[in-house]
Amino acid sequence: MISVAEAEALVMQHCVLQPAELCPLTEATGRVLREDLIADRDFPPFNRITMDGIALRYAAWDEGLRRFELTAVEAAGMPQTKLDDEHAAIEVMTGAVLPEGCDTVICVEDVSIETEGSRKFAVARESGAKKKFQFVHLQGSDRKAGDVLARQGAMMSAAEIAVAASVGKSPVLVSRVPRVAVVTTGDELAEVNAVPQPHEIRRTNGYAIHSLLSACRIPATLFHVRDNEDELRLKFSELLAAFDVLIISGGVSMGKKDYVPEMLTQVGVKKIFHGVKQRPGKPMWFGQSTEGKTVFALPGNPVSVMLCAVRYAVPWLLKSTGFETSAPLLARLVSDVCFASPLTYFPPVNISFGSDAVISATPYESNTSGDFAGLLACDGFLEIPESQPVFSAGAVFPLWLFRPLFSS
Amino acid sequence: MISVAEAEALVMQHCVLQPAELCPLTEATGRVLREDLIADRDFPPFNRITMDGIALRYAAWDEGLRRFELTAVEAAGMPQTKLDDEHAAIEVMTGAVLPEGCDTVICVEDVSIETEGSRKFAVARESGAKKKFQFVHLQGSDRKAGDVLARQGAMMSAAEIAVAASVGKSPVLVSRVPRVAVVTTGDELAEVNAVPQPHEIRRTNGYAIHSLLSACRIPATLFHVRDNEDELRLKFSELLAAFDVLIISGGVSMGKKDYVPEMLTQVGVKKIFHGVKQRPGKPMWFGQSTEGKTVFALPGNPVSVMLCAVRYAVPWLLKSTGFETSAPLLARLVSDVCFASPLTYFPPVNISFGSDAVISATPYESNTSGDFAGLLACDGFLEIPESQPVFSAGAVFPLWLFRPLFSS
Prior knowledge:
The structure is a homodimer.
Chain A: H1 4-13, E1 20-23, E2 37-38, E3 48-49, E4 53-56, H2 58-62, E5 67-74, E6 89-92, E7 104-107, E8 111-116, E9 119-124, E10 136-137, E11 148-150, H3 158-166, E12 172-175, E13 180-185, E14 189-190, E15 201-202, H4 205-215, E16 220-225, H5 229-242, E17 245-249, H6 260-266, E18 269-274, E19 278-279, E20 285-289, E21 294-298, H7 302-320, E22 329-333, E23 337-338, E24 344-345, E25 348-353, E26 359-363, E27 380-382, E28 390-391, E29 396-401
Parallel strand pairs in A: 5-6, 13-16, 13-17, 14-15, 17-21, 19-24, 22-26
Antiparallel strand pairs in A: 1-12, 2-11, 3-10, 4-6, 4-7, 5-9, 8-9, 18-20, 20-21, 22-29, 23-28, 25-26, 25-27, 27-29
């Protein structure tokens, strides 16, 4: 059996980059950029006024002038005007272009207006102009035309979407999302809407994996196959033709009815590993076909499924879209953990944020690893190495979340 | 002008709870539960076998018996069998019901099989059975029928989805998502696909807000209106009839063309506040109609839009679905921040996670608050109170994210 680090390395080495596709901006949130976003103009593209007020020559102010005839009005969205009289001013609004001949804006609160017949004058307060280019966002001061703003590999948040819009990138080139089939196996599994027989339980693993992927914006299609060699072989063969990735639950242990690894092998999926020194999820199987179709075959225990999906399948899927996955989050153990087996231990944990900005993890106490209702009180799994039997409160370990963190 | 705390309180006091609706499980991730999830059966619903092997009476083992005739096979999904001969055993598989008359399972690795004609015997290793109910997940040991598993108000992660599936809740009752219109205003704004005139810039705020909401699984529809009183009045009136929430950008300052507050008032939206002692986002306007239609009118600066949407609109929207929003995340300042104005300061920050499990925030240095390309290097905003002019590295403040945190 291999270690968690070896399993992770093998999974990531067998990542298959998805092709790129064009995507409307309104559907691109959470997608991964496959082109650099380049400034097509300066940011801002002109000397942009940031306050309503009057635009004038600072030299005139400097000479002591405080009363300016208003010779024009320039609102946002109007072509640039020009100051013809260097002792006059132009009424301007936020978002407008700084008029030609002007270099300073005095805001509307620092100005009073006087009229003389059809003529209009602005009288400015002494504190009105503090410096040249006051209330002007200078052309190119944030970015220059040609600058690379965002690089491919970035996951698009509202910031990338806004910048893509600003440079006219709609549609934008992003990675195609892998096509994923989620397959549950097990004759004891009843439909969700059925009343189960006394010896049956309802299917939960397919929905759990579907939900995890959905939280990463990866749609998946659910299937169920009975514990029958012919049915498994046929369904796997069909699904490998139609999907990029299969995530299977159940049928991977050493039991009589654990047909999944053998049937995968028969339809051309080569085993990369079977068994990882971890709890939960020890019987996990991972393989790939020569065409790059990738199979995560997870044990049927719902807690194992959640851990294996979060620890291996989700990182593979994100990397397959070109996303540069960062180092995992880290969390601090709140209480001692004893775990004597020579396995990496992934206890489910509840996460909290203290006034010290530390991410704290409280292990969930459960009598069995099959207690998936216990996950309701948890946010993720801590990854505790196999190095020693006792880990003390205060130690810091990687954290794998199945529940997104919100800040609101 | 009111403080950030007062603005937040007013926004949250005017929250409108959305009605509940039924939702298929495969679409329920990220939605908010509006019914408790109750165990319809024990968890597990029967004494469930957790290893392939043989099931037997512990008393027989205790008497010294190590060789057991195998009188039946019980796979997962088969009705419960019965041990007729108390010195025999039944071959069992993971997920099967513990046979009547059995109380212990010895796993397949600890057993060798012998055949005598058509009869089959299992010979167990001395270490095979360590205790009664070994490898049996006892009925009701996790939860009892009737137990409340998850409560309304929970946001559905993979854990809630799995539990909902296990109790047959498909569809499941969740909050309807508010219908949101996002309206940009400003005559200087060109379409994303247009080549802007020299005095124009492309629309970005609508896409940014749309993306923020999309990250919270709240769809929104985009609109743009020119800086014209009649057009604004007409469009606001139409949108208030068709949507629950309007998020508007631009036109809320004190300038000549800032018609938005007045036009909202004219179509029956009552002002709740206008102006918040904060940077960015000071001119923000918030109001509500007597029918509960709610309007966030944000200043047009793209950084202000992002902050106001994350700080006020998103929490309102989440609360409107019945989600019990938790305290905000906290992050530790990496460098000193000087900010002398009597305003709450929200600098954009980049977040990092150190080996000490601390969330660190590095303020983004920018020459203007209009530098929205700078948000690409950031993850959220820190909320620094107006209490003093200098805040030292190491201090901890609330964190408002616009970029989701991943653990993989």
